[in-house]
Amino acid sequence: LLFLWSITVSIFGIGGLLGSSGSRYLTVKFGKKKCLLCNNVLMIVAASIMGCSKISHSFEMILIGRFMCGVSAGLCVPLHHQYVGEISPRKLRGFANSTSSFFWSLGKAVGQISGQRELLGSQSLWPMLMASCGVPALIQLVTLPFFPESPPYLLMHKGDQEGCKKAIRQLWGEGQHQAEIDDIMKEKATMKNTKILSVLELVKEPSFRWQLYMIVILTATIQLCGINAV
User: Fold this and answer.
1) All structural domains of the chain with their residue ranges
2) Sign of the dihedral defined by the CA atoms of residues 84, 87, 93, 96, in that order
3) Tell me: domain 1-147, CATH 3.65.10.10, correct?
4) Which of 68-77, 140-149, 216-225 is predicted least confidently?
5) Which pTM value belongs to this model?
6) What mean pLDDT value characterizes the chain?
7) ∠ CA 31-32-36 to the nearest 5 degrees?
């Protein structure tokens, strides 16, 4: 039982590692909006599987659902940050990106509160608690089609300048947005002369060694701060 509990908890992180590893390839090939839409479907399917686990008398469904949730979360975190940053006006970009961390923490708090035995953590309602992760995914699945694709993606990867201008007007209203388009073109020119490193190449690159050490130490110490025990 202890082994099964451990696997059930940790398999979310394994799925997250796989999801985040494939996020760059998927965003370049399909675009951020399409990836987010498909990712919402994945989360809804995972929530449905976990929600039906008690009726089916299957703990394996919880394992599968947790793994799928991890893959979805691993894809969503970098995708969400990129998409929100790219569709926001320059003066609001920093604020828009910071809201991700706020809602991430708020979601954890809501989950902890909802998991109390007096609410959804009871013996009869816990499947609803596990399926509740599909609610925000469903909301985003319904609302996201009304948003355009990321303007930088349209211009840099698709070469669709008209589509980029149309997306910018839809997001930021009518006006002169040539400066933003010029910035995207400069970024595109810079990327042509910049080599994109794989994860293995990044680890081997000496110039990034100290930054990498810092990130690893910070991430490791966060796990040791007691949050998992809580």
Assistant:
1) 1-147, 195-229
2) negative
3) no
4) 216-225
5) 0.78
6) 84
7) 125
Query: 82: part of which helix (H) or strand (E)?
Result: helix 59-87
Identity of the residue numbered 104: W
Q: What is the pLDDT confidence band of residue 142, given thresholds at 50, 70 and 90?
A: very high
Residue 200 structure tokens: 């293995």
How many angstroms separate the CA atoms of 220 and 230, rounded?
17
Instruction: Give which of 130, 12, 21 is closest to 63, Cα–Cα.
Output: 12
Top pLDDT among 211 and 182 is at 211
Q: Is 229 helix (H, G, I), strand (E, B) or coil?
A: coil
Q: Does the structure show a pLDDT above 90 at 64?
A: yes
Closest CA to 202 of 21, 12, 14, 16: 21
Residue 138 to residue 44: CA distance in whole angstroms: 7
Query: Do the beta carbons of residue 154 and residue 170 sit within 8 Å?
Result: no
Residue 134 burial (C-beta neighbours within 10 Å; 0-12, 13-18, 19+): buried
What pLDDT, on a 0 to 100 scale, did the predictor assign at position 49?
93
